[in-house]
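Thought: the user asked what S-adenosylmethionine:tRNA ribosyltransferase-isomerase looks like in 3D. I have the sequence; next I should run the structure tool and report back without guessing.
Action: structure_tool
Action Input:
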Amino acid sequence: MKLTDFKFEIDDLNVPEEPLEKRDSAKLMVLNRAEKTIEHKTFSDIHEYVNEGDVVIYNNTKVFPARLKGKKEKTEADIEVFLLRELMPENMLWDVLVEPARKIRIGNKLYFGEEDDELMAEVVDNTTSRGRTIRFLYEGPNQELYDKLDELGMMPLPPYIEREPVEADKERYQTIFATERGAVAAPTAGMHFTPELVKKIEDKGAEFLPTTLHIGWGTFRNVEVEDLTKHRMDSENYFISKDTSDKINKALKSKKNKVIAIGTSAVRTIETSVMASGMSKPGTGWTDKFIYPPYEFKITEALITNFHRPESTLLMLGAAFAGYDFLMEAYEEAKEKDYRMFSFGDAMLII
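Observation:
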């Protein structure tokens, strides 16, 4: 398939800039691939589609406040640093973007916070593919640095959300599953779950299983090649435990229980873990797995996902799972029925 196959207009779409106060009150569109039917539900109804013995795979990554506003030494020019990922925790080295970038040189010192010495960093490299490498000049353990970044930083809301982040976003732009710090974008399908809804599903005999994929800023990067086979995803760190893999494999072997993935990041994690036998293998590493039509899913049997931006890799994964024509039909229906789109929007269950 080509990039232009995934193009559609967004000018008249309902794109919210705030999440719903009651997370599971979002709309839920249910796509049945075998019957080619579309149902319209509320997300709190999703327990109706989960059965005893099913396993529900979630991404437990936690978004950290990755945007820092500061000043450059001497000139006191305003700068903004976007923390992409931690490179060497022992040396407090980070891969970052800096705006404006043109006047930032190796050796420049950057200051953050109300006091000049509250938090400082030094630019140590400007040759990385993403921008710059900085070293925080902080005397203390890494956990104290993380606490300081949490205090001074702002949440990295998606670029199509035009408002500035507020303090409340540090909780609102997170899932209830978030425990492992490391993402700069939320696994938004998981944002619809509440503790009460999880318990209702568990009471039916299903089990929630964690995986980790630290979503990077590349999730918002435009695909710039018409031929999708030539697109390369940014690598992202993932982890899948032996317990999660073993329980996935048990469900797969049962033939009657489903493996349900919450979000495209969970799908990419479990599909990365596939062995030659078609079973899941535990492990950790980096994945740049790009899923687009046609693709044979080895593990994922149902998918919970949001409505995604045109020409995005997330939309392409959804099309690979649902079938391109069926998914495009669903998006047209969502538009007609004023579904809320993108990160703070409504959800879709594909079975």
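Thought: the tool returned a structure. Summarizing for the user.
Final Answer: Structure for S-adenosylmethionine:tRNA ribosyltransferase-isomerase predicted. The chain has two domains: 3-63+171-350, 67-152. The two ends are 23 Å apart (CA to CA).
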